[in-house]
């Protein structure tokens, strides 16, 4: 296993050119080791979402280098990137981003299908992932038939099903009530305890405090990076 | 990920919005169907003209007196001294003169026709045939009129002026209902005629019912009904349809000589070639087909624009979904393949339904025309609909699949 899951070096993301240009990321470097549970905090416009999109290989950067699980992402073409996204990263979005009018099971199976895994094994792994998130009895339900908390847990199951190196969550609790938020964060703890790297982007202090390490951002720069008290990195 | 799996994805994608899927399919179906049916209608109407052309015989020529008013009461061969006109009526001798192997090698035979108007009575049934003619036996061949039941009358019947007659189907039904008319006697204009035959059904050509006919020896008709008035017309049969023009030239030469018409003078008769009349109407029905085809092509185009619109909306609506799929690891080519297969299924199913609809629709009479399907129109309509569906289904999909996932995900 490589030493670092995430290795971002001097990342710059610039929108526009000349005097009107804005730096969403201004020379950011960040290293995250396997098994870490990291929260990235900051007000809106601080560049945390941009950083997450780059770490998730969803967006490219203006300059800098990025290694994910030892692979240089910043040099890849779009086609290889989709493979990397499928195999290395599990995404969890604020708005869940499930495929509409498709059952929970089919949603969880989808990334496995794109990896070319056979139907029988796919079903088995998707079922197992849904059991982990406590939705074994909701597998045939479509997203609209599930509550927000349940939908987000389907998304977690979908992210876990591919056994990614990294779980990347962008404001995962933004659309949830406090009970669902609590359940989801318990689930993240469980996942992290099982050894998986978890990165949560949030602006909620409570959510960030559940992580073991908190990175604060402002104006495209990291302004602090510390271990949370009472937690062991 | 294999093709079968992508096809399953495509079917799932289509089943997600059933209303949109069925509307798109229907749009394609109607476009394809209208092209097939409209072109079949145009083709059917020109086929109908062609058929009546074949039925009439393309090698018969009609000669009618064209010299204006002809004084009545003339006898055979008599010169009409009608007022200032020098025109002569057509006579039996004209008909005899036209059958001349030396001067008219292209003419097979000729038959004089004396038309009358008479009402025939059989008990309480009456019938007024639209064609009541006295003629020669050669008429039947020249006019392409065949006997269905009974026999033709003979040259002997003409010589003896026997009151026998051959009638058409309409006349037979009017007079005898379902009874066998052969051997029955009817009174026409008070004169008894014995029916000896019925002609084959000809159908109506234009305004005239071709089966409302009563044909008798010319001598019998002249003796008892019309008197010895000039002929109404002479029907001439050319040896075959290729020499019809030659036969017309021969007729002109012979009749000009007989009627004393000098070169450059105005003839006192007119020639009608039914084939040439029908050729004109055939070409006008070709114009009709082209017009219908143009209308159909426009409807296919409009249908195509409809398909394009629905496909564009579908892809725009699903840009976010494409973003999600890319985020969880779908390569561009698989997304493209899915949309391409969806579009192909839509246009294939719609196109096939349109072809079936076109075949079914062409079985019905449409505005009095029995449509006849043109095979090339089927392939054209089917091919164009599939091309439109596939192209406009895959082009916006390829644009969406090329987006960076973050852009597609931001799409609402």
Task: Outline the secondary-structure elements.
The complex is a heterodimer of chains A (233) and B (412).
Chain A: E1 6-15, E2 22-32, E3 37-41, H1 48-55, E4 63-68, E5 71-72, H2 78-88, E6 89-92, H3 104-114, H4 119-132, H5 148-161, E7 166-170, H6 178-193, E8 197-202, H7 205-209, E9 213-218, E10 221-227
Parallel strand pairs in A: 3-8, 3-9, 6-7, 7-8
Antiparallel strand pairs in A: 1-2, 1-4, 4-5, 9-10
Chain B: H1 3-16, H2 18-56, E1 60-65, H3 92-98, E2 107-116, E3 120-122, E4 125-127, E5 131-135, H4 138-142, E6 147-150, H5 155-160, E7 164-167, H6 169-176, E8 185-188, E9 191-199, E10 204-205, E11 208-209, E12 213-217, H7 218-226, E13 233-238, H8 244-259, E14 269-273, H9 274-317, H10 319-327, H11 332-361, H12 375-402, H13 405-410
Parallel strand pairs in B: 5-12, 7-9
Antiparallel strand pairs in B: 1-13, 1-14, 2-5, 2-13, 3-4, 3-8, 6-9, 7-12, 8-9, 10-11
Helix pairs in contact in B: 1-11, 2-9, 2-11, 2-12, 9-12, 11-12
Write a concise keyword list for the protein shown above.
heterodimer; A: 233 residues; alpha/beta; six-stranded mixed beta sheet; four-stranded antiparallel beta sheet; B: alpha+beta; 2 domains; twelve-stranded mixed beta sheet; two-stranded antiparallel ribbon; 14 strands; 54% helix
- As for the CATH topology of chain A, it is Rossmann fold
The total number of structural domains of chain B is 2
The main β sheet of chain B shows up as: 12 strands, mixed
Which CATH top level class of chain A fits?
Answer: Alpha Beta
Whole-angstrom Rg of chain A: 17 Å
Low-confidence stretches of chain B: 68-85
User: Multimeric state of these chains?
Assistant: heterodimer
Structural class by sheet pairing and helices of chain A:
alpha/beta
Count the strands of chain B? 14
Which pair has the most extensive contact? A-B, 30 and 26 residues
Give the low-confidence spans of chain A: none
Please, what is the CATH homologous superfamily of chain A?
P-loop containing nucleotide triphosphate hydrolases
Radius of gyration of chain B: 34 Å
How many structural domains in the coordinates of chain A? Answer: 1
End-to-end separation of chain A in angstroms reads 18 Å
* CATH 2nd-level architecture of chain A: 3-Layer(aba) Sandwich
**Helix/strand class of chain B:** alpha+beta
